[in-house]
Amino acid sequence: MPPARKIPLSKRIFDLVLTIPALILLFPVMLLIALLVWLAHGWPILFTQVRPGYQGRLFRLYKFRTMNEARDAAGNLLPDEQRLTRLGRFLRSTSLDELPELFNVLRGEMSLVGPRPLLVQYLERYSPEQARRHEVLPGITGWAQINGRNALTWPDKFRLDVWYVDNWSLWLDIKILAITLWKVLKREGISQPGHATAPEFMGNESVDDGRQTTDDG
């Protein structure tokens, strides 16, 4: 992991000033979504997964479930794109599945803006430059998300993440949040062709083998 970089206090205050009112205002919406997810997908309502965050420290990410548990005759889960339900597609296209991550922000595990938290196994696959994305808190949205989201290639995503690390400012966070709202309305870059989200990052020397990420958003 790269050397520790202190999280600016102004960024933390900015997150809390926006997150606390958002949780209060959106709580009825989250309850409604929880009910719809329970009716469509059953229990549990939330998708939870351990992800690496600031300096690679592990935390548990929370999202609304967008997939069912459909399995083949051998009992194996079907591919992601086959388990993604109609409700799940709607939640992803509107980014409503991300709302529980506000609790991650409240707990200080994430920020509103930053590189998306990806899978734990990616830590050993990053180049030293790509690993710099962990010099800041992961975010619900980020510079890569407003510049292509899952339609980007992995190298492009990581290049944009590192650019954010080197160019962070509160004004940049405000700009990213504003553009995010517009992008959500347009529903751009939700997935790569043939994938529920994007193919798994196998490292810089490998070729995509078609495997899926696990609900990386």
SSE arrangement:
Layout: H1 9-41, E1 46-52, E2 58-64, H2 80-83, H3 86-93, H4 101-106, E3 111-113, E4 139-141, H5 154-167, H6 170-186
Parallel strand pairs: 3-4
Antiparallel strand pairs: 1-2
What is the end-to-end distance? 23 Å
Helicity range: 25-40%
Largest sheet: 2 strands, antiparallel
Overall shape: it is: globular
Order of strands across the main sheet:
1-2
Could you describe the 3D structure shown?
The chain has 217 residues and is mainly alpha-helical. It has one domain. 38% of the residues lie in helices and 9% in strands. It contains six helices and four strands. Strands 1-2 form a two-stranded antiparallel sheet. β1 and β2 form a beta hairpin. The C terminus is likely disordered.
Could you provide a short overview of the structure?
With 217 residues, this protein is mainly α. The protein has helices at 9-41, 80-83, 86-93, 101-106, 154-167, 170-186, and strands spanning 46-52, 58-64, 111-113, 139-141. A hairpin with a 5-residue loop joins β1 (46-52) and β2.
